[in-house]
Write a structure and sequence with these properties.
With 230 residues, the chain is α+β, with helices and mostly antiparallel strands. The chain is built from 9 helices and 10 strands. A hairpin with a 2-residue loop joins strand 4 and strand 5.
Length: 230
């Protein structure tokens, strides 16, 4: 919901038309509109929310014409912190702990990984890795308010960068093993990986038709680099 702040006034400010503006644009009665403009003249800031950007644009333009000073778009303190929150989460995601636990490569909190390891079928290391090592990228950028039409493209770019960074960080413990990274999903963009084990079935069906329907991309990663295989 777009917001406009009236932050002050300039010499020549037109108080009576400003009262009329508040009544017309904000649905205020004469008395509350008059009191708000008096408060503005006394140095108080006024804050208004609108249902549409067009309504906010028109109000902001009219206020400027009356020699009011404004802040538009106005972001309240919680909104200002939102990008910082998203950036902090992304930083933590790229710096996620990566470690080896009894021949499995896992991410996140070590104690939580140990708990999953103790509860998991020891004959299914791929299932354990695919469960622990999966991240819904939308959870990390929600506060940024990306354009829904462009969000999936941006999430895929983020996923590509994350895979490259994690592969670089895993190189020291990867040895001669290879990884399979799964990127995508029908609704969200998810990054997931596990060690590729000879003779074992991968976490996902690698049939091209199935991969296309699932909106996935699959990469094989090793110390030599990254190769898209589906």
């Amino acid at each position: 919901m777009p917001k406009v702040a009236l932050t002050g006034w300039l010499p020549g400010f037109q108080a009576v038309p400003a009262i009329k503006l508040l009544r017309r644009s904000c649905g205020l009665g004469l008395k509350p509109a008059k009191e708000m403009i008096e408060n503005l003249l006394d140095g108080e800031r006024l804050y208004f929310s609108f249902d549409t950007e067009q309504a906010a644009d028109e109000f902001a333009e009219a206020a400027l014409d009356l020699d009011a000073t404004i802040e538009y778009p106005y972001l309240d303190p919680a909104d200002r912190r939102a990008p910082e929150t998203a950036l902090r989460r992304l930083s933590e995601l790229f710096a996620m702990p990566l470690f080896e636990l009894n021949s499995t490569l896992l991410t996140g909190d070590l104690k939580e990984a140990e708990r999953h390891f103790s509860d998991w079928d020891p004959n299914d290391p791929i299932g354990l890795e695919a469960f622990v090592n999966h991240y819904h990228l939308e959870d990390y950028i929600r506060e940024l308010g990306l354009d829904p039409k462009k969000e999936r493209r941006e999430l895929n770019r983020l996923a590509d960068a994350l895979v490259l960074v994690w592969l670089e960080r895993l190189t020291g413990i990867l040895g001669e093993r290879t990884l399979l990274f799964y990127v995508g999903g029908e609704q969200d963009v998810i990054v997931r990986f596990h060690v590729e084990r000879p003779g074992s079935v991968p976490w996902m069906n690698l049939d091209p038709a199935f991969i296309k329907k699932a909106r996935m991309r699959i990469f094989r990663a090793s110390r030599s680099g990254l190769e898209r295989i589906a």
